[in-house]
Design brief:
CATH architecture: 3-Layer(aba) Sandwich
Helix content: 25-40%
Order of helices and strands: HHHEEEHHHHEEHEHEHEEH
Largest sheet: 7 strands, mixed
Shape: globular
Number of strands: 9
Strand order of the largest sheet: 1-4-2-6-9-8-7
Distance between the termini: 30 Å
Structural class: alpha/beta
Mean pLDDT: 90
CATH topology: Uracil-DNA Glycosylase, subunit E
CATH class: Alpha Beta
Low-confidence stretches: none
Number of helices: 11
Radius of gyration: 19 Å
Number of domains: 1
């Protein structure tokens, strides 16, 4: 490492936590917002990183849904009137070490191959890894609405909302000219594959034959075609579940392979 770089790192490490958080403010790229606004019935715009599309890779990450308990539902509903509410909250998702950020942070750890937890007190190298990754991707929830539920699991979603969300997400895929999609869980993977505009070109859970990697439960791959655009899909074990294992080599290697396709 060069002397100048060492000095900058040492200086950064001495900064108070408040200033570190200011340095790590992740900004949504509003380049696509005018196009998102034209999508019928869209309630929430995806977060799009500042370097989305770099290296000709346009990676979209689909979580499943956002839910809140009945007592918080009205408040959260009012916040989300702003369609950029969740896109503008991405820094909180990255660095707030709370129950509601656990799943997103697990995904980040696995995606950049960390072996320990991170925070704003992490090394500048780690913080730059996080910043570089998040700025290359787009992120949203497949179910394009807030769901009211006492529990995070087994949330009832109406078939009509799934169909409506699928229609919205097809338009998002087209707008972003997506090349790669990461699906959090089997449901999201199956939602996409069942869309009428999707042609399945290849589908496999055998990562040994795909890339000489170890197979892992809950992970699968597909190559699809949306009109003239070919898209790679990766199904991962939902990052909230123990089976995902963010520090596991097999989890990290599959994600790393996918991002380099």
């Amino acid at each position: 490492m060069k002397t100048g770089e060492t000095f900058i790192i040492q200086l950064y490490e001495k900064l108070p936590l408040f200033f570190k958080k200011c340095f790590m403010k992740i900004l949504h790229n509003n380049l696509y917002d005018s196009q998102f606004a034209l999508i019928p019935k869209i309630r929430s715009f995806p977060f799009v990183g500042q370097n989305f599309g770099i290296d000709n890779k346009r990676i979209l990450v689909f979580a499943h849904n956002i839910y809140c308990k009945p007592g918080q539902y009205k408040i959260e509903r009012e916040k989300s009137i702003n369609k950029l509410h969740y896109a503008n909250a991405i820094t909180d998702y990255l660095f707030s070490n709370e129950n509601w950020t656990y799943t997103f942070r697990n995904f980040i750890k696995a995606s950049i191959k960390l072996k320990t937890n991170y925070s704003t007190k992490s090394s500048i190298e780690t913080l730059h890894q996080i910043e570089n990754f998040i700025n290359k991707i787009a992120y949203t929830n497949y179910i394009n609405d807030i769901l009211e539920s006492e529990k995070a699991n087994n949330i009832k979603i109406s078939p009509a909302l799934i169909v409506e969300s699928s229609s919205i997400n097809i338009e998002i895929l087209k707008t972003l000219k997506t090349t790669h999609v990461v699906c959090w869980g089997k449901q999201v993977f199956d939602y996409i594959l069942s869309c009428t505009d999707i042609e399945i070109l290849n589908k496999s859970a055998n990562f040994n034959s795909l890339a000489k990697l170890k197979n892992k439960n809950g992970f699968a791959f597909a190559k699809i075609k949306l009109f003239d655009q070919e898209i790679y899909l990766l199904r991962i074990f939902h990052p909230s579940m123990p089976g995902f294992s963010p520090y596991n080599n097999d989890t990290q290697n599959i994600l790393d392979w996918f991002y380099t396709l």
